[in-house]
Fold these 4 entries.
Entry 1:
Amino acid sequence: MSNARDAAVDLDVRFFRPNVTERSEALAYRNSVEVPPDTGSDDPWTDEDIVSDRPYRIEIEDRSARSSRHYHYRPDCSDEGPYDIGVLVRFNPDGGVAFSQTTCSSDAPFL
């Protein structure tokens, strides 16, 4: 997560498995985090190895702004080789939120 705002962002983060009817059964990951403002480093705030690589609906809720956003993560890599997967959430100074994900193939869009 990357925070270009002047203040820290206080979040609830949830990962849900798709195609599961009961929300409580679909929940794969939940955490509350505070993302500090960027300090000029190129390294975003990260949390690693939280879920296996499969499709998820990722929901973030900014508790201080009482707003939420979501992103549909779909793995791009089809081979069995090692690769770094990830979703980057960027909090823009104007209050907007942008999601992007890493890809493996050259023809896959970088969202």
Note: The mean pLDDT is 80.
Entry 2:
Amino acid sequence: MSNPEITDEMPDTWVREVCDAIEVYDHTVADAHESAVVIDLTPAAMRVLDADPGEQLVIGWTERYGVDWGLGRADHVPNPQTLDARTPAEIAAAVHLLLTTGSPA
């Protein structure tokens, strides 16, 4: 899909494409399902993102807001922020920037 419609639940094939694209950058996906992708943070990523111990990077999507990201747990992200990305490759590139620089752009 070059420009998928963002919905609360994405097809398994699209989620897999997002995970595969993220893993190209050598980041490990801890969990993935129809509404989110969860990435465990390395010590370096924790420092860059100023994350608390146990927090994870959660990438989610909704029809209303598009793709977003936040620190928390798969079931609760208190302050999600917009991720200006729609395709699996764009999402992966933004995730890589987040994990290495602390900013998605």
Note: DSSP finds three helices and five strands in the chain.
Entry 3:
Amino acid sequence: MRASQPRAAIAGDDGVHTVAFVIDEDQHRPLAEYCRVMLLRLQERYEVRAQAR
């Protein structure tokens, strides 16, 4: 993914880094679509697991 303007990178105590950036406008819609699909899939998996109990 192309980031147009990196803002900051913060190292966490657990080794995970948080990166803040402004997304290139051309990449915003594909990223939003990816997030939407990812959340739908997570919800589907959650519902399947909840019904199995």
Note: The chain has a mean pLDDT of 83.
Entry 4:
Amino acid sequence: MAKVTAHDALSYSLKRDQAQFAEEAERLAKQAAYIAANPPADGRTVSGDITRLMQEAAFLLKRAVTIEAGLEAVGLMGAETATTEK
């Protein structure tokens, strides 16, 4: 039976997170393009749309930082493993 390490588990999780992040970023970009191409109708302002976009962008930025920290941790785990195996 193969031994699953924390490095392996974190690497797998990060790959999934990165794929999901890319999908969400693409969706947000499409949403922003739609808002830019379709000005608000009478009686409606664009500020609510912009506010939602900003909130979603802030959430994505937080996720990007989390993913980046995870990648750094995987790198450090790999470096530690390499030095302990010598």
Note: The chain has a mean pLDDT of 88.
